[in-house]
């Protein structure tokens, strides 16, 4: 059973009474509960034992299987893609993959939407993303929640083109703001729920901490969040085994991402990244994560004037999400594993000092593994073991979407409201949020079909 860490002074939430879920909402059908009580009543799987797959006995095996396992036979998801052009320079793009596709399924416009952020160099097709969405987006009659979902693919990932020398990072949140602005504009009555995986969890945690009560998301879930990037980096770099396995594995993923976009970058005017590209390419051995962060991410991992940063260590200090937990004002469930070889510093003190965040820590599970059950040995025959994390995450989203009441101060009827849409206006062809004032980076324009709209299908 996971060890749970709660705030010392937990927030109180307004929720539907379990006895009144199927009845019209009235004063007798609501109650005030603490975030602790809300988690305990909503996520029964957190209070049952988690037993890892016998042939994946520790975090190293669990993490390795994420890369070598065959997951093509499970959790198939069909996406419909929308590309957004952002305001900063009018050239930058973010890819949004919606499921189920609107051309195939007509859901109620009030259906809750899960907004997912993938991990480092991941995509909407990542097996850990599909493990959640493959269940949450199933119709209720098939055991799912019947929700809609959209995966925010970071710049340069999942086939999203790079049209200027800017990428993404663990602390850059403006791209998420633009995505949420678009989603809440086309689905103004839908509750928006966030889930982040690893680096995506860091982005989500930073966003929630920065936005506080203004968050467009009514709640979130953070899976294998790296929290304190500086301490994690020190662990990876100062240990011979970790430096030559995990640090190089992560560094190589960033190297391949940069390499994939070199043809496009070479056609662009010189930038702050330009003199560093030959240095990276000249490295004879596989670069470690801190090498790529020093010569790549800290330079172009976000928008000016924040980027470029003086050093990778400055980037780590700035992007570490544990320092922003006190600002979170919507219910959040975070899950980490004690034997995660990539994330080892957990923010138990910061959780205690927060008001809306609960942290569950399992003994085993590795980094985004959490495999349980037998499956077929080594996942042969496209039958890998299932991920334990799916159960509490789907339970959590079910509670956020159906139990939680978000009060609208201007409405006395106590109806369930979503404060996701604060009004948008058009400016120079872009949709922008007037609440952002002069922050012209938070705006978007949808690319037309000729510019990249497509249906993406993932089958075994």
UniProtKB/TrEMBL annotation:
InterPro entries xrefs: AB_hydrolase_1, AB_hydrolase_4_sf, AB_hydrolase_fold
GO MF entries: acetylesterase activity; monoacylglycerol lipase activity
Family in the record: Belongs to the AB hydrolase superfamily. AB hydrolase 4 family.
Domain AB hydrolase-1: 112-369
UniProt source species: Botryobasidium botryosum (strain FD-172 SS1)
Name of the protein in its database record: AB hydrolase-1 domain-containing protein
GO biological process entries: medium-chain fatty acid biosynthetic process; medium-chain fatty acid catabolic process
SUPFAM superfamilies xref list: alpha/beta-Hydrolases
